[in-house]
Structure formats: C-alpha cells, structure tokens
Amino acid sequence: MQITQGQRLPLASIGISDRLTMAVNIQSQQVIDIACFGLDAQSKLSDDRFMIFFNQTSSPADAIKLLAPGEFEISLSALPATIDRLVFTAAIDGAGAMKDIGTSRFTISSKGSAPAAACEFSGGTFTVEKAIMVADIYRKGGEWRLQVNLQGFSEGMGALVRHFGGEVNDDPAPASPVPAAPPPVQATFSLEKKIAAQAPALISLAKKAQISLEKNNLTAVKAKLGFVLDASGSMNGQYSRGRVQEVLNRLIPLAAAFDDDAEIDVFAFGAKPTQLSPATLSNYTNYIDTDHGGWRKWDVGQRINDEPKAMRMVMDYYSQSDDKTPVYIIFISDGGVHQNREITKLMIEASSRPFFWQLVGLGGHGYGILERLDDMAGRVVDNCSFFAMDDLHDLTEEALYDKLMEEFPAWLKEAKSKGIIG
C-alpha cells in the first residue's frame, strides 16, 4: 500500500499485530541520523531508555531495537503501558537542510515479511528543516495506528530531544553570570501545514485557529472533540442555510490541533439522540447534508429537543474507558430548553469527569438553564461555558475561535489540579 503525508491507518488493516520492522531510507549527501523516540501519553520522553539511536541501540525488553542505520525492529506487546507513541525521526548531522535530500522512503512490515505499506518523499516536501518527524506509531482506542508525519524543525537532533522533553548533554554550559534563558525551540510546522495535505480549503481557518490557540497557550494540548447538534424542527433554517455546516467547518481545524486523528465525534438529537459518523479532514465537506443520509433523515425521533437524553448519551460514550484525556464538547442549541432540573443534575455529575461543555446558542431564545450553568454551585470544577449569537455570521472567524477558547484553559488547569484529567 502506498501511503502519503497526513494519512493515518490502523496497523491491523495492513496485517500487522505485534512484531514489525520500520525502515527509513533517506538519500542524502549529508550524514542523516535516524532515531526512534518512545513517548508517554503527554508526548514526552519520560524515560530516556526509550530513545533508540546509534548510541543506544535497544530499549528495555528489546521492545525497540536498531538493527541497522534507519532500520528498527519493534515488539508492540513488549512496550510498557507508559509508552503511547513511537516517533521515528531523521536529523542532519552538520550543514544542510532537508530540502536537499533525494528520493526517499520509509516502509513498515511484519517481521520477516515484505513491506505492507510504503511512503515516498523528497526534498520538495521541506524548506529549511534540519530535522523531521517521519512517522508515528501510536495507541488510540485500544489499537495501534500509523501516521505519516513528515513535519520538521529548523534545528537538528537537539531540537527534537528538547521538543520531546529530553535533555541534550552536549549543550554548552552557561557562562558566569548565568545569562537569561534562551527562548524555547520552536517547531517550524504549524496547524496550517498539518491540514494542508488533506484539506487545503481549510488553510485560512487553520491560520486563524492557530492564532487563538497560541494566545491561550493551547498548542500542545491533546483532547477529544465532541459536537452535539440540536436537530429539532426549529433548527431547520440553520441547517438549510448551511449555518450548521459552517460551524463544523470551523471546528475541523481545532480537531486537527487537539486530536491525532483530527476527528470530531458527532451526535444529534431531537426527541432522542443518535451518534453520527466521526467528522474528519477527508469527509467534512457537505457532511451535514450527506452523513447518515443527511440531516433531514437523521434518526432523532420527533423534531422536539430533549437535551438531557443527548447529554447522557455523550457522557456514557466517553465514560466507556477510564481514559483521562480531556473531552471538549461543543453543544449547539437554538433554545426552548425547559428540563432545568435534569440538566443541572447531569452537569454536576459530569463535573467530576474529564468533560468540558461549551454550550452555544444559535439563532434562538429561551436557553434557560444553559445560560446559568456557568454559575451553578455544587460542581467539583466549573465545567461549562455559554455564549449565544443570532447568526453565525455575527462573529468573525477569529472572534468565534476566541469565544470557544475563552474558558477551556481555566478548566484544564483546575481539572488537572484535581486529578480529573491526566
């Protein structure tokens, strides 16, 4: 199977279950150091025994072994539970940049078998980068998956080590007196570059989302993103005018920033809730009019709104595991909310779980308890925020991102301090 930048797939789909070989072959006049970083759930090198390179050729239990330059043998079952991600990297030792490399490729295969998947790349993918993350193998939903990364840094291997939270032993010692600390190493890739390969139409939105994420110090946050849609009859105008699709379009860049698979879990509700297909970079276009037959055919029962049933479905879905990854839930409603007691009880229950609820009123009135949840007592943490707009076009895209990110950072800090999120 030929795979390309940005592509993700389960290893099981290419016949790999445990033992595999990853081989990275880069054609270059420069010396290229190939390494594998074994990272924890926060994408940090918390145990440097799992950085495998020419100077350390195996990890504990031989879970990762460097067989030859650029060729790694992996035993997934031998990896400890603390290792969630393997990042295969390449860095130039000396002068030069990745734009100068020739036709290169990496392959992945079951041990002793022919390659099951291959990705070709060249210097045309890069500009000034001296180090790149070639590919990731990571856990998601109880399975191992592969991601084609091909994103880079303007500095070399040291920048990679520092990016993953490690220390570079050969960094020069500071002079006396100690000067001010240097600015942190900045990755040259951005949210814009991350989605450009699959969804170029979203590049403008990605730039605006990136600015808001940077302002709120959220660029390193990993979270799941849920989107809950009022599909009652009074919302018909919002759907038919394309407003709901526009909201989804603006959320996809956030999904790409927060989630490795750039997925949004989507739910809709009328008299009863239903779960739809995940929205992704590959299917977001016309999602509202096409998924499950389009919004007019969604299985939501009578076109009346029952928010508590939808909230319960969402909470039960994300409570299936003990995962402490934050879940950012965007709940769209045009009002007519009246089940105040039931909603209050649910939000109190949810406050001890890793769920943040961003409630958004869209073109309606009578939002009831949704407007007051932000000040509600009895919760472990403040897990809700609300804002309303008569029309999506009342807010610029930049202002919408700022609204969506307004209270999420404070919840992350408080939820982490109380052990609700990891």
Automatic annotation (TrEMBL):
Domain of life, per lineage: Bacteria
Residue ranges of every copy of the VWFA domain listed in the record: 224-404
A Pfam family hit: TerD
Alphabetical keyword list: Tellurium resistance
PROSITE patterns for this protein: VWFA
InterPro entries: Stress/Tellurium_Resist (IPR051324), TerD (IPR003325), vWA_TerF_C (IPR019303), VWF_A (IPR002035), vWFA_dom_sf (IPR036465)
Keyword Repeat belongs to the record: no
PANTHER family, sorted: CAMP-BINDING PROTEIN 1-RELATED, TELLURITE RESISTANCE PROTEIN
Protein's name in the database: VWA domain-containing protein
Organism: Pseudomonas arcuscaelestis
